[in-house]
Amino acid sequence: MKTFFRELICMIVIAAVMVLILVLFFYDYLVNDNTIPTESKYTRSSDVSQALKDKKEYDEKAEEAVIGTLTKAAYNIDENDIDAYIAEGLLTQGKPNPFQE
């Protein structure tokens, strides 16, 4: 009786492996109702393409302006700013990082 169940399980495993191999072999021939869209269905109109191009140019100009403003603001400290920082107590001279508290 024990060998009967063992042989039955082996036959089921062999049948499952054979089915998987056949599915892999005939995968391209299985019925597939999905339709793959063609590339021509997804073309952009000229208005959308122009709008995206304009947006990209605007974003690049805005980024250049922001970067230019940040670099100018980060490095333009004159004598009046230094005197104001010393008067407020934010700047202490003689430290590696004078703004450190």
Structural class: mainly alpha
Portion of residues in beta strands equals: under 5%
Relative helix content: 55-70%
Low-confidence stretches: none
Question: Mean pLDDT, as a whole number?
Answer: 81
| Overall 3D form | elongated
Describe the structure.
The structure is a single chain. This protein has 3 helices and no strands. It has helices at 2-25, 46-75, 79-88. The longest helix is centred in the middle third of the chain and has 30 residues, at 46-75. The protein is elongated and about 100 Å long.
Layout: helices, strands, pairs:
Elements: H1 2-25, H2 46-75, H3 79-88
List keywords for this structure.
101 residues, mainly alpha, 63% helix
Sum this structure up briefly.
The chain has 101 residues and is mainly α.
